[in-house]
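Input chain follows. Return structure tokens only.
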Amino acid sequence: DLLEADVAREKVGTVIHALKAIGLAERGGIVVTSPTGTPFRAAERLERAAPGHPDDAVVWESVEAAAEGGAVPTVSFHVFLVLAVLLAAIAVITDSSVLVIGAMVVGPEFSAVAAVCAGLVLRRPRLVARSVQLLVFSFVFAIVVVTLLALVARGTGLVDLEEVTRPRPNTGFIWHPDRWSFIVALAAGAAGALALAVERSATMVGVFISVTTVPAAGNLALGLAFAEAGEIAGSLAQLGANLAGMVVSGSLLLWFMKRWWPQVTARSEALFRQLS
């Protein structure tokens, strides 16, 4: 048997919880789809009756599913990260801010960071463990690969020590973390967590180009290849500060949304209607 129901996005979580309570998730299946358009009056009545606005609604089952997907190690994830770290290393050598941005956009690591945040808030320790494992292994793998490539470039004379250690006005910040590095990571982590929760994928691009994870990994690979302790230490500090900042702020925001978001959105929607 197939049963379909039109449900306001704001109430999807409540309906799914009720269906799970009667055992439908074990004995049958639950599929949630979002229509591209609802040009009928009943849909308008449903939206008016539901508290809050559909664009602000959070379907926690979808958040968990997205987090589970972000914690899965795949070949494409590792290839993207290797390419991103390679681009970042080239950006360091050429002192190109454009390449730094390109490397940031290519990097896929935020999906795993978001999975850590969701796992902490939803109390899924296995999800947290898988996400951390993916982050650690993928970054180590990418850094090792790019370090080997840098050693080849060094051995063939394609890159020399002076190109790595010379003053770099456009990319020197990569291995010089300061308090703003952590502050930016906090803001980016919160933005990414919010985008995950309300399913605003377009916002993720801004998150990617705000944090210095991939550039730090690229600089670290070069530092290892040329045995530059200062570059290595600075890059590790930058990478750690950015990852920690994103996890802290992303987890705090999702925790806030889990506890108080429905009340906040319902009251805000009522206020917006009065003002309009």
